[in-house]
Write a structure and sequence with these properties.
two-stranded antiparallel sheet, single chain, alpha+beta
């Protein structure tokens, strides 16, 4: 069968339309992934570093949330060295917590965006030690179940190529505090791991636990209820 000009032109236009539509859908999905959680109060200074973005809470002197991306390819390209150079974050307009706040407190300077995520970039690795990315964690928690969950998120990055993580402590004014800057000590921490095909959410007490990490899985609406934050997954 011979195809006339109209038929050829129609097929060409239709192919172009379908391609454009698919590109638009991908752009919309990707932009939703990149949206920031919504904190409905004034303690929400958005700070962007190379490897992660955070919302700083001055009242509690730590992040409402920290968001970062993990890829299997980046994890395979380990060229950065961990220098443990904790430092103030000068981007925090009101001044971040300090190293001194944690000294003698009995709490670890626990990373929210883990240093091990940024093994492929020395600048990003160094920036993970800003005090705005740190929260008071019991040593048995930080080096135990929290570390196991961080290992799990890196496992998911290998399995899914690229994942996004949003994490932080559950913050409120009734928490105990440490240091001159009165840094809040969260009782609970959350971690949300997702991409455009899956999501898994954790809510974990700031204490030692040998339980399987699946024990701490909760639906996203429970995390939103505890944090008072709307997450745009």
């Amino acid at each position: 069968m011979r195809l006339n000009y109209w038929t050829l032109n129609y097929k060409t236009n239709m192919k172009s339309f379908i391609t454009s539509t698919l590109i638009l859908i991908n752009i919309i999905c990707y932009s939703q992934i990149l949206e920031y959680p919504q904190v409905i109060d004034s303690n929400n200074q958005i700070i962007k570093h190379r490897g992660y973005t955070l919302s700083y809470n001055e009242t509690c002197e730590q992040a409402n949330w920290v968001k970062y991306r993990v890829t299997g390819a980046d994890l395979d390209n380990a060229i950065a060295s961990r220098l443990n150079n904790f430092k103030n974050d000068n981007q925090v307009e009101t001044g971040s917590a300090s190293i001194a706040d944690y000294e003698g407190s009995g709490y670890d300077r626990g990373h929210l965006a883990p240093a091990a995520t940024f093994v492929n970039n020395q600048v990003e690795m160094n920036e993970s030690f800003y005090m705005s990315n740190i929260s008071p964690q019991l040593p048995s928690f930080n080096r135990g179940v929290w570390k196991r969950i961080e290992n799990y998120e890196r496992k998911l990055a290998y399995e899914h190529d690229t994942i996004y993580v949003i994490t932080g402590g559950i913050l409120n004014t009734n928490l105990s505090r440490i240091g001159e800057n009165e840094v809040c000590v969260p009782v609970l921490y959350f971690k949300i791991i997702y991409n455009n095909t899956f999501s898994v959410c954790f809510l974990i007490k700031n204490q030692k636990s040998n339980d399987d990490i699946n024990t701490f899985e909760y639906p996203i609406n429970i995390i939103e209820k505890h944090t008072g934050i709307k997450f745009n997954l």
